[in-house]
From TrEMBL:
<keyword id="KW-0804">Transcription</keyword>
<feature type="domain" description="Sigma-54 factor interaction">
    <location>
        <begin position="311"/>
        <end position="541"/>
    </location>
</feature>
<dbReference type="Pfam" id="PF02954">
    <property type="entry name" value="HTH_8"/>
</dbReference>
<dbReference type="Pfam" id="PF13188">
    <property type="entry name" value="PAS_8"/>
</dbReference>
<keyword id="KW-0067">ATP-binding</keyword>
<dbReference type="InterPro" id="IPR002197">
    <property type="entry name" value="HTH_Fis"/>
</dbReference>
<dbReference type="InterPro" id="IPR000014">
    <property type="entry name" value="PAS"/>
</dbReference>
<dbReference type="InterPro" id="IPR027417">
    <property type="entry name" value="P-loop_NTPase"/>
</dbReference>
<dbReference type="InterPro" id="IPR025662">
    <property type="entry name" value="Sigma_54_int_dom_ATP-bd_1"/>
</dbReference>
<keyword id="KW-0547">Nucleotide-binding</keyword>
<dbReference type="InterPro" id="IPR002078">
    <property type="entry name" value="Sigma_54_int"/>
</dbReference>
<dbReference type="InterPro" id="IPR009057">
    <property type="entry name" value="Homeodomain-like_sf"/>
</dbReference>
<dbReference type="Pfam" id="PF25601">
    <property type="entry name" value="AAA_lid_14"/>
</dbReference>
<dbReference type="InterPro" id="IPR035965">
    <property type="entry name" value="PAS-like_dom_sf"/>
</dbReference>
<dbReference type="InterPro" id="IPR025943">
    <property type="entry name" value="Sigma_54_int_dom_ATP-bd_2"/>
</dbReference>
<keyword id="KW-0805">Transcription regulation</keyword>
<dbReference type="Pfam" id="PF00158">
    <property type="entry name" value="Sigma54_activat"/>
</dbReference>
Length: 639
């Protein structure tokens, strides 16, 4: 149930019951009968009419027992009082001014919530007598006669009073049960929400409503409460000050709470509490900034998707590199990954992250070569509010802050501007960042994995890369082989990309011409695995679910293979270097050669099976209709 709806329901219910209680109280106070309720002889309730007769204040009645007011000649009332028989009795009492009052008294037991009380009803005989113009002298005998006649009326009033008390008592019990149930709802809500909730007032009093503060700050709840009290008393926080003085709500404001071990960073939101008291109060919601950033990272895709099992290879050196990466993942040192573009450096980085103890944390990837030179610092280290034109008012965290508790992957680290390399070196050494335009030091705990396609040592010699930063980053290094150095993986990768594109019918290579396979294996793949994936996707988009032939390949692959390989056929050398054969001529030649082979194959099978079309089609693994179509195309007559 929504918290606001629940609170409104409680308020309406209580207001209704309070109105009912006021209503019956007004009724009782206006009845010209003295009514009181006793508990062990003490007054627990007395109506206004009775108080006006006794002349005692409410405070004085709390100290007086009922029997102390009874005249000494009427002490036999004790027996009636102790037994509460429900009989009527004559009695004389003495008020505060010493006046003696003759009453006709009724006492009976009253049960409310399993507790026993004594109900007392009394009538002033003198007042009743004077109303009828009689003498002021009142005799006990007259009182008895008078009340004998009015006994039935008094009994009815008594029964109505008891019925109303019982009804209201039951209603109060139900209200109490609902309040207990509602309190349990609210308590469970407060216990199970992930945010800490505190109530604070303008005097600096601060009280926590749940135990989430201890989880956020590792048993430092008292310190946080004292810090908020200090902010209020010294008016150090603009938003909290406006909240308490002007009842102005605020949302998602970052706050840093000093602590001995490390500063506690939180996001707070506040709303005023509407009430009749003179002291202004407010409720503040406190969220752990780490949980918010984890949520942001999850929805922004800042998570590693690949594991070592996703790396496809049969190459011995690559398998050794994977094992080395697994060992490296268990440590905390910086990692430098070497490899050409498209070899899968980020896949290795993600696999290291997922294999490490930081796997539950974020994985932030930054391409240093893709960032404008002037924005590298603000992207990596963040900026304070108003640091430069166009900056957000509340500032912006950098990638190192977002990666805290996880891994930051700096791709193409060799392209980082030399002036930003100094700042990166300080982050590595101090494990802190300072936002651009800010002065606050922010601790970060992110493991750094870098990747480059350059020889950083040569870049150091050329003066393009800082030597001290190079040695800081090159704690552990991994080299990933280019695809041309592990050709045994090409076919496995092709099968994987075919399945990925949901073309699994081709991964057996039965519908792929052998020349295509040979060409793909012999090609040097300068774009490595990324280029291979793109070529497979290109082929699949143009084949229209037919056999994949060599003409489906891009021309650049033809050119390179034809320039580097000599195709032998019937002791004739056919190659781009030996003869000026164009790509189209080569394709035409290959197609003609394939048709000649298919014609010879059909003729041989016709002779073998004596023209039995069914057996010929079965041997060729084609249908009868396809065989007829080919025979018609090649103008072959059945013998």
């Amino acid at each position: 149930m929504n918290k606001d709806i629940l609170e409104d329901k409680i308020k309406d219910y209580i207001d209704m019951e309070v109105f009912k209680l006021k209503d019956i109280n007004e009724l009782i106070n206006n009845i010209p009968i003295m009514i009181c309720v006793l508990n062990k002889g003490k007054f627990v309730y007395i109506n206004s009419y009775f108080k006006s007769i006794l002349k005692y204040s409410k405070y004085e009645l709390n100290k007086i027992r009922f029997m102390e007011l009874v005249h000494k000649d009427y002490m036999d009332i004790i027996e009636n009082y102790q037994k509460c028989t429900g009989k009527y009795s004559n009695i004389k009492i003495i008020n505060k001014k010493g006046q003696e009052l003759c009453l006709y008294l009724y006492m009976n037991k009253l049960k409310i919530e399993n507790k026993e009380f004594t109900l007392v009803l009394a009538f002033n005989a003198k007042d009743f007598y004077l109303q009828r113009g009689k003498s002021q002298t009142v005799k006990t005998e007259y009182c008895e006669n008078m009340f004998d006649n009015k006994g039935m009326e008094l009994e009815k009033i008594k029964q109505k009073f008891e019925t109303e008390i019982k009804k209201k008592s039951d209603q109060l019990i139900n209200v109490n049960k609902n309040l207990i149930l509602t309190n349990n709802y609210l308590t469970n809500i407060l216990k199970n929400i992930s945010e800490a909730v505190i109530i604070i007032d303008e005097l600096g009093n601060c009280n926590s409503l749940n135990n989430i503060l201890d989880k956020i700050c590792n048993n430092c709840e008292d310190k946080i409460e004292k810090h908020f009290s200090k902010l209020v008393i010294e008016e150090k926080n603009y938003y909290i000050n406006k909240l308490l003085k002007n009842k102005k709500s605020f949302h998602n404001v970052e706050i840093i709470i000093p602590n001995e071990l490390r500063d506690i960073r939180c996001i707070i939101s506040g709303s005023p509490i509407e009430q009749e008291e003179n002291i202004s109060k407010a409720v503040i919601i406190i969220r752990d900034i780490k949980e918010i950033r984890d949520l942001v990272n999850r929805f922004n895709g800042y998570q590693a998707r690949f594991d070592f099992e996703d790396i496809i290879t049969k190459n011995k050196k690559m398998l050794e590199a994977i094992q080395s990466a697994k060992n490296i993942a268990l440590g905390e040192g910086n990692v430098l990954i070497y490899g050409e573009s498209g070899t899968g450096k980020e896949m290795f980085a993600q696999a290291i992250h997922n294999y490490s103890n930081r796997s539950e944390g974020p994985f932030i990837a930054v391409n240093c070569g893709a960032l404008p030179r002037e924005l590298v610092g603000s992207e990596l280290f963040g900026y304070a509010g108003g640091a430069f034109t166009g900056a957000k008012k509340e500032g912006n965290p950098g990638k190192f802050e977002l990666a805290s508790g996880g891994t930051i992957f700096l791709d193409e680290i060799g392209d980082m501007p030399i002036e930003q390399q100094v700042a990166l070196l300080r982050v590595i050494q101090e494990r802190t960042v300072t936002r651009i335009g800010g002065s606050r030091i922010i601790p970060v705990n992110a493991r750094i994995i870098c990747a480059t396609n350059k020889d950083l040592f040569q870049e150091v010699r050329k003066g393009n890369f800082r030597e001290d930063l190079y040695y800081r980053l090159n704690v552990m290094s991994i080299r990933i082989l280019p695809l041309r150095e592990r050709r045994e993986d090409i076919l496995e990768l092709i099968k994987y990309f075919l399945r990925k594109q949901k073309y699994s019918e081709y991964d057996s290579f039965e519908k792929i011409n052998k020349d295509v396979i040979d060409c793909l294996v012999r090609y040097d793949w300068h774009g490595n695995v990324r280029e291979l994936e793109n070529i497979v996707e290109r082929i699949l988009n143009i084949i229209d679910r037919e056999n994949i032939c060599i003409e489906h390949l891009p021309e650049n692959i033809y050119n390179e293979v034809l320039n580097n390989e000599i195709i032998k056929d019937n002791n004739r050398k056919i190659g781009f270097l030996d003869e000026s054969i164009s790509i189209h001529e080569f394709v035409k030649y290959k197609k003609t050669k394939q048709e000649e082979e298919e014609i010879n194959s059909i003729i041989k099978l016709i002779r073998k099976h004596n023209g039995n079309i069914s057996k010929i089609a079965k041997d060729m693994k084609i249908s009868r209709s396809t065989l007829y179509r080919k025979m018609k195309k090649y103008k072959i007559n059945n013998i």
